[in-house]
Design a protein that fits this description.
Strand order of the largest sheet: 1-2-3-5-4
CATH architecture of the largest domain: Alpha-Beta Complex
Organism: Patulibacter medicamentivorans
Order of helices and strands: HHEEEHEEEHHHEEEEHHHHH
Number of domains: 2
Structural class: alpha+beta
Distance between the termini: 42 Å
Radius of gyration: 20 Å
CATH class of the largest domain: Alpha Beta
Domain Aminoglycoside phosphotransferase: 35-257
Keywords: Transferase
Largest sheet: 5 strands, antiparallel
Number of strands: 10
Strand content: 5-15%
Protein name: Putative aminoglycoside phosphotransferase
InterPro entries: ACAD10-like, ACAD10_11_N, Aminoglycoside_PTrfase, Kinase-like_dom_sf
């Protein structure tokens, strides 16, 4: 199901120059049909069809963007570095680095047959035993990512490991100051508490930055449950791996959780059989050997960042840059996230 209206994607993908680009890279033949796909609300993703060939194209959203946001060329470089290391990522087939071609940079990858889960699961993935395996697979794929040596080529130099958490606080604090559409005092308070209680990071790894159920593809078919691909790498860098675990667990909805814009993106995990946040964290600790005792700070960071990122998106909605109905609900949704971030950091301080 597409999350974009006609207004949102009209003009985002001029087909004549795209067809010539695909021809030049030997990617199919004949006319190109394109439809928006995915449940994401950031970079635009399109399914391309050329006769029997199916491809996927990623490009930035329309409208004004925050500096350094939605860098699909950087995303494509990372995918090409991670795939040979055994990380579960799609293959990058071609990169369009000239924005003049379709109005923005983009990259093309194969269409993968699988399931991206949000509110429901297909019959092949239904049931308590399959639900438990989904959580295990998400953790195991994350452990694999964090085991890759980010100091060796071609990953060396991809990010700056030292000071990662400090930079996250500065970057998102600046976004809040410069792009918020209103005063959000809860987020300001959380920012101060995060700075006051900043943990000491362990060895750096590649960090996905948006690691949650809705950004993983589960393999199709009747076989064992398996994460076949990790998607949406636009926020990836090198830094503290517990930031990913904090984000995964903070965005993992449980039965009695109050709804908010992020938990709504993965509400399936409220169903019987899914692991708890504590069980996910325990499996990660066992498989990775890392201490997760301070995970609450990282969960607060995750919710705080998500609230700010969505507040920037809400500003784009108010400016008329998108009509995505998800963004329309952020007027009330962002303050709910802000309250959850505050509750998490206050619980951490008590602990």
């Amino acid at each position: 199901m597409s999350t974009m209206t006609d207004h949102d994607h009209r003009g985002a993908l001029p087909l004549e120059p795209l067809t010539a680009f695909l021809d030049a890279h030997g990617l199919g033949s004949g006319p190109v049909a394109a439809v928006p796909i995915g449940e994401g609300h950031s970079n635009l993703t399109f399914l391309l069809r050329r006769r029997s060939l199916r491809l996927v194209l990623r490009r930035p959203p329309l409208g004004p963007l925050a500096p350094s946001a939605h860098d699909v060329l950087r995303e494509a470089r990372l995918l090409r570095a991670l795939r040979p290391a055994g990380v579960r990522v799609p293959e990058v087939l071609a990169v369009g680095d000239d924005p003049a071609l379709i109005g923005a940079p983009f990259y093309v990858m194969p269409f993968l047959d699988g399931h991206v889960l949000t509110a429901t699961a297909p019959p092949a993935l239904a049931g308590a035993s399959r639900a438990a395996a989904i959580g295990e697979q998400l953790v195991d794929a994350l452990v694999e990512l964090h085991a890759v040596d980010a100091t060796r080529e071609p990953l060396a130099g991809f990010g700056r490991p030292a000071g990662y958490l400090e930079r996250q606080l500065r970057r998102f604090g600046t976004l809040l100051t410069e792009h918020a559409s209103r005063r959000l005092t809860d987020l300001e308070l959380v920012a101060e508490r995060l700075r006051q209680t900043l943990p000491t990071s362990g060895p750096a790894t590649v960090v996905h930055g948006d690691y949650r159920l809705g950004n993983a593809m589960l393999a199709a078919g009747p076989g064992p449950v398996r994460v076949s691909a990790i998607l949406d790498w636009e926020l990836a860098t090198v830094g503290d791996p517990l930031a990913d675990l904090g984000y995964l667990t903070a965005m993992w909805a449980q039965t009695n959780d109050l709804e908010d814009p992020m938990l709504a993106l993965g509400s399936l995990t409220r169903m019987p059989g899914f692991a708890t946040r504590e069980e996910l964290a325990a499996r990660y600790a066992e498989r990775s050997g890392r201490d997760v005792g301070g995970l609450g700070w990282y969960q607060a960071l995750a919710v705080w960042k998500a609230a700010i990122f969505l507040e920037v998106s809400y500003g784009r909605y108010l400016a008329g840059a998108t009509t995505d109905p998800y963004f329309a609900g952020l007027g009330e949704g962002v303050p709910r996230l802000a309250r959850r971030a505050r509750a998490l950091i206050e619980q951490t301080a008590v602990a």
